Amino acid sequence: MSTTKASGPKLGSRPVAARPGGAVLRSGGRLIADSLVAQGIDHVFAVPGESYLDVLDGLFAVRQQLKLVTCRFEAGSVNMAEAYGKLNGRPAAAFVTRGPGACHGAIGVHVAFQDSTPLLLFVGQIPFEETDRETFQEVDYRRMFQPLAKWVTQIDDAARIPEIIAHACDVATSGRPGPVVIALSEEMQKTLVGVPDVGPASVSVPHPDPASLARLRALLGEAKRPLAILGGSCWTPAGRAAIRDFLVAHELPVAVGFRRQSLYDGTLENYVGDLGVGSDPALVAHAREADLILAIGTRLGEPVSQGYTLFPRSGGVPIVHVYPDAAEIGRVFRPALGIATDLNVFAAAVAKWPKPGHRAVWRDWTRELRATRMAAYAIPDYAGPLNVAQAMRDLEGLLEADAIMTCDAGNFATWPPRFMNLRDRQCFIGPTNGAMGYAVPAAIGAKIAFPHRQVVGFVGDGGFLMTGQELATAFHHGVAPIILVFNNQMYGTIRMYQERAFPGRVSGTALTNPDFAKFIEAFGGHGEVVASTAAFAPAFRRAVASGRPAVIELRTNPEQITNRATIADLRAAAAPKPAKPAATKRPSRKPAKR
Ligand SMILES: Cc1ncc(C[n+]2csc(CCOP(=O)(O)OP(=O)(O)O)c2C)c(N)n1
Ligand SMILES: [Mg+2]
Fold first, then answer.
1. Are strands 550-555 and 526-530 parallel, antiparallel or unpaired?
2. Atom nearest to 464 CA in ligand 1
3. Residue 162: how many CA atoms within 13 Å on its side-chain side?
4. Taking the model in full, what pTM does it have?
């Protein structure tokens, strides 16, 4: 970082005359806007602040190339930018003001970090000469964002703007993608400098080496019960198609990682479900029986590994870990083979392998896992007038072939993946860090990224009232997502944990809600209330036909706390077991087993 104070005339943000023989003089604010354009960034999501007025003026100058999406809350705007980056594979920029704006926006940085999503977050900074006085809204962003971001920097010298923004894009998109935070000194934005733009870098990506691919073939040759786990970000459509061709040709059973349903077509005969929070226990049991784990693109983190219990830490079942960053391979589980490679290049390489001429040794195993998946997918007979599983099945049939779904955090979130099989071009995104308040802004970000695709958000009554007001942004920018609010009048997930740990002692988890249909109607949108299974499909069709942002409230049965258990089930499981009849002869001196 340059700590020298920026020099040069401070004449406002408009470019002035070209220097003789040099580049045009531009203000820091204008140069930031131009640098984003030069890097191919086309959307900025922002809540304005006086700390970056010069950038706002610069964005006005480039408004034909760079769309500025004004939002209502930084926890919404940064999540919109994150969803945009997740769906596109290239970053959007978010701008927040200093102090309070940065604090509100931090959640989106954490989402991007744990989801490996490219993102640029710009934070207006205090005047340089007031540094370290705990001046108004002062925060040291390097310290604040250090554990949340892939890189944190501050621009104090306007002449370095093109260099730093270019590097920030490289960092955000390379290897394991992630968020970069860039603080912008206030007076730096006003300084006039004459420096040229810097374009995107052309960098070749790491390829898998032939020896590793040969070893992978050998390990597959020895396996009888392999399991592929597909996950991660930065897959291109071609990469996804190639890995699908490979997995289908080899008849490998495929599970997807937590909230990575988009990566594999659920209608294919080798899709076996998702490994994450709320996974099918039968799939988890099968995963424990596998004799080869082929982890492609996924981190072997807490949700996927079922709290780090799914595989032995070393020895035992061999793991092949294919990941874009060598530092992540072997982080907890030591693999038999680690391949640090670009995932799409890896997929293209293995897709070229000759299709095995013989029947796969593990064909019956794959069928068994698929049967497990289809058993979980079958619709149970739930009590109450609204069977949410059937509503999800109806939705499966109503969604457009390239619909995008965004998902919040909560127990409701386990219903769509269980009861819908996504098709190839459909997308399903959610925060792998379990952040509530994601789905509504993500749905708006998705709709802004892809205005012609249908976008449906899934959110609980708790999560909806965290960022649901962001729907004002959808109206302001003329996009119409459809939001399904699963209303069980509680923070259901926490109630579930509560009932397991402290049965019957309901503390801090009940909610009082507004009328969600009237809520969206107050904005000028379309509202529906669904209280029975039969009412869902017509309500969804009307929401689509309205062409306006829509909220469909699903009045769910609060007793059905998960799609596998009622509150009564949890209480029964938590109840102390009746003591065994006391032994009459020779009582054992052994300590009781815990
Ligand atoms: C931002 C944030 N705050 C709190 C939590 C803790 N938390 C996880 S799930 C949950 C309840 C979600 O309630 P709701 O959105 O109504 O969904 P439900 O579980 O009832 O289906 C809470 C409070 C979290 N994950 N994220
Ligand atoms: Mg709820």
1. parallel
2. 15
3. 17
4. 0.93
